[in-house]
Amino acid sequence: MLGAGGKGRHADLVRELDIPAPFDLGEFVAGLERQRHRPIRLCPFSSGPGIPCGLWIGTANADYIYHEQGTTPYHQTHIALHELAHMLLNHRGATQVWEKLVNLLMPDVDPQLVQLVLGRNMYTTQEEQDAETLALLIHEQSGDHPQPLPPAGPMTGAFVRLLQRAWGGGS
User: Fold this and answer.
1) Mean pLDDT lowest for which of 32-46, 54-68, 100-114?
2) DSSP H helices in 54-109
3) Which of 3, 97, 118, 171 has a C-alpha 20 to 30 A away from that of 58?
4) Residue ranges per structural domain of the chain
């Protein structure tokens, strides 16, 4: 269930966005930078156990969107869109700052300058649902779709194609 305003609020927000077609994450982010009048940096990283696959770090001068690099390009884009959705929805999350993670990801930034650190497990469930809904709507509007998985072997390929047909991901 969506929060106040529900899916309509998210659809209104999507209509206000400049979503490039074909979709290009860098171009989309450049449009958000112009709209917000501040830089947004996309930062691929390798997460691990206990570390979120996506993270939004807001400083006084810029927003940093961290997304897992060890996944498919489509999933990387979706993770980044999810974090951008938190930003667009003005989510504030918890007040706790992950100093070790910030120091690892941004060693040259004084931790006192970090105003906002939001990772997936720091949001309320409602904020997570809202961000996921907005990310899905942006992805849907963009026309960007995951590519079919390549078969790894004769039996694997047949099995993957069967799963893709069952889930609507292939022919």
Assistant:
1) 100-114
2) 73-88, 99-105
3) 3
4) 6-167
- Asked if the model's pLDDT at residue 7 lies above 90, the reply is no
What does the chain look like in DSSP terms, one character per residue?
Answer: ---TTHHHHHHHHHHHS---SS--HHHHHHHHHHHHTS-EEEEEE---TTS-SEEEEEESS-EEEEEESSS-HHHHHHHHHHHHHHHHTT----S---HHHHHHH-TTS-GGGEEEEEEGGGS-HHHHHHHHHHHHHHHHHHT--PPPPPPSSHHHHHHHHHHHHHHTS--
State how far the Cα of 156 lies from the Cα of 148, in Å rounded to an integer: 13
Write out the two tokens for 136.
Answer: 């899905």
The tokens for 56 are 């939004």
- The pTM score is 0.68
- Distance CA(41)–CA(33), nearest Å, equals 9
Q: Give the pLDDT of residue 46.
A: 86
* Residues 19 and 141 sit within 8 Å (Cβ to Cβ): yes
Both tokens assigned to 4: 């106040």
The pLDDT score that the predictor gives to residue 165 is 63
**Is the separation of the CB atoms in 44 and 69 below 8 Å?**
yes
